[in-house]
Design brief:
Layout (H helix, E strand, L loop, with lengths): L1 E6 L6 H14 L4 E6 L6 H10 L4 E5 L5 H4 L6 E4 L3 H4 L5 H13 L2 E4 L2 H10 L7 E3 L14 H6 L12 E4 L5 H13 L3 E4 L4 H9 L4 E3 L8 H8 L4 E4 L2 H4 L9 E3 L2 H13 L1 H18 L2 H11 L5
Parallel strand pairs: 1-2, 1-3, 3-4, 4-5, 5-6, 7-8, 9-10, 10-11
Helix pairs in contact: 10-13
The site of one 2-acetamido-2-deoxy-beta-D-glucopyranose has 7 residues, from helix 9.
């Protein structure tokens, strides 16, 4: 089947990585799956032309609003993968909510990453009962074994007091205002190094060699970075917010903190208690293997695709 897959594809962001992984699952069983950036289309008429020209037979969209709304009224069957902010944020806007309800009605199936996301969607759109499946994000990591450590370490500024401890912040610059704020703060902080986006394999090589991965985010979502750290057997220190608490069980699969003092306390504990570290790493790896299986995710999407034939 020729499948169109709409998502917001900013490089090295969670959405782009998820979409590419699901595309690979579908292509592995012989489908052709073309990823297109939802932001490239001004209207669904523009998308209609593309569907015609490229002879797409079915479609998928990641995010009920950003991708889904473009598929409304197109002549091909489609499925939806909830993005998270569609259910958490966009449903607060009356018009968007209505559009999303109509899209969901047309969709042959929808996928939620978690049970709670499914429940939230069903509360808003009871008509989608029986249509929403749960499939956690599958995780697979592949650290670059030829990663060049010399260039990485030379560029790092070492912490003045504790030369062995430094913090590296990695990722794409998405919000320019926030980025400049972060840059000016980092300039004043010894031992904190800011790095831009980089290939996933390189990032995984770095993570694998870190003592811990920190997530201090206050935003909603599910952190693939945390799950990847668990897969790479690196302990996780994460802020205690719902998205993180859903995957990090305190003292089991990682350590949670609510404020800076608690972060320092938990970080010191991790440094001084190798038994705790070992326990966390083992449980984290087990959790990813059983609940975020890449193989299971592959099976689910390959099966769901039959609903579009
Ligand atoms: C792995 O690291 C090497 C050396 O730094 C680099 O040349 C190569 O492009 C990297 N490969 C990937 C897949 O990132
Ligand atoms: C941190 O966690 C939040 C919530 O789980 C998530 O939205 C965000 O993408 C994560 N960021 C990183 C860099 O892991």
């Amino acid at each position: 089947m020729r499948i169109l897959f709409l998502a917001v594809l900013r490089a090295h962001t969670g959405n782009a990585v998820t979409a590419a992984r699901i595309r690979d699952h579908l292509e592995a069983v012989g489908h052709t799956c073309n990823l297109k950036d939802a932001l490239d289309f001004e209207s669904s008429t523009e998308l209609s032309s593309l569907i015609c020209a490229e002879k797409f037979e079915a479609a998928l969209a990641l995010h009920l609003y950003r991708g889904g709304r473009l598929l409304q009224g197109q002549r091909i069957p489609f499925g939806i993968i909830f993005g998270g902010t569609d259910i958490n944020e966009d449903t607060k806007h009356g018009e968007k909510k209505q559009t999303m309800g109509a899209v969901l009605e047309e969709a042959r199936f929808a996928v939620a990453f978690t049970e709670s996301m499914k429940e939230m969607a069903l509360n808003i759109w009871p008509h989608a009962k029986g249509k929403i499946y749960i499939q956690n994000q599958g995780i697979s990591t592949m650290p670059n074994i030829t990663f060049n450590w010399n260039t990485f370490l030379q560029s790092a500024e070492w912490h003045q007091e504790e030369p062995n401890v430094y913090m590296v912040i990695v990722g794409p610059e998405v919000d320019p205002v926030f980025t400049s704020e972060v840059k000016s703060r980092v300039k004043r902080a010894a031992g904190v190094q800011l790095m831009g986006e980089m290939p996933r394999e390189d990032l995984h090589a770095i993570v694998k060699n870190c003592f811990a991965v920190v997530n201090s985010s206050i935003s909603e979502g599910m952190s693939a970075a945390i799950l990847e750290a668990m897969d790479l057997e690196v302990p996780v220190l994460a802020r205690n917010i719902p998205g993180n608490a859903a995957i990090v069980k305190h003292e089991e699969t990682g350590l949670l903190f609510s404020h800076p003092q608690e972060f320092i306390q938990q970080a010191k504990r991790l440094v001084n208690d190798p038994a705790l570290e070992k326990e966390i790493v083992t449980k984290g790896k087990e959790y990813v293997r059983s609940c975020h299986s890449w193989k299971l995710e592959r099976d689910t999407y390959q099966n769901l695709l039959r609903k579009l034939q």
